[in-house]
Amino acid sequence: GAGVSQSPSNKVTEKGKDVELRCDPISGHTALYWYRQSLGQGLEFLIYFQGNSAPDKSGLPSDRFSAERTGGSVSTLTIQRTQQEDSAVYLCASSLYHGGEQYFGPGTRLTVT
Amino acid sequence: EDQVTQSPEALRLQEGESSSLNCSYTVSGLRGLFWYRQDPGKGPEFLFTLYSAGEEKEKERLKATLTKKESFLHITAPKPEDSATYLCAVQGGNYGGSQGNLIFGKGTKLSVKP
Fold first, then answer.
1. Is the pLDDT score of B96 beyond 80?
2. What is the per-residue pLDDT for A14?
3. Which domain holds residue B94?
4. A43 contacts in chain B (CB < 8 Å)
5. Which of chain A's ends, N or C, has fewer CB atoms near its CB within 10 Å?
6. A30: domain CATH number?
7. Domain count of chain A?
């Protein structure tokens, strides 16, 4: 069956611009997660959704980061006024229920110049 | 604070040379320990979940074990296609208000030479 998909696969943007990253979870998975992976660092939790609500936004690094999920399915992560330190791979994962095994997408590599 | 430490950071093996990767953890109320494999340019691929000390799981040349303080990923007679970064993550029951979220280690990069 179809796995988690993310788009775009690569994004190069200029400092100060806004970007939107998209995640399509596995059909039927109620929980959706966003992570960030920087070179040499582990996966950093950003936010998770249960259905359309986000009970835990504790990992968002600043108020420039926001995310939404609609229809209990697709999610977008928006970064406003991008900075060079935002350059990383952004990974999305979904699970059948919160606390279950998470299945990851291929990621979006964001480069801020 | 919940924490996961993986060692070694990198491991080079000859094909057929068995070894083990270590994942040490500190967590309030372990709900699960997860192993993932990540190939370059790809997202992590789920391998195993372990829930309680003494539990073991196997898949092909990989076997994961769990104690109260650490987990091992044993690789028996590895092949070049086993080369990847192996990630360990824990799921705590009392991690602030974030029950169910995974806390990842930085991974062990495994290279298997033919």
1. no
2. 98
3. 3-113
4. 44, 87, 89, 102, 104
5. N
6. 2.60.40.10
7. 1
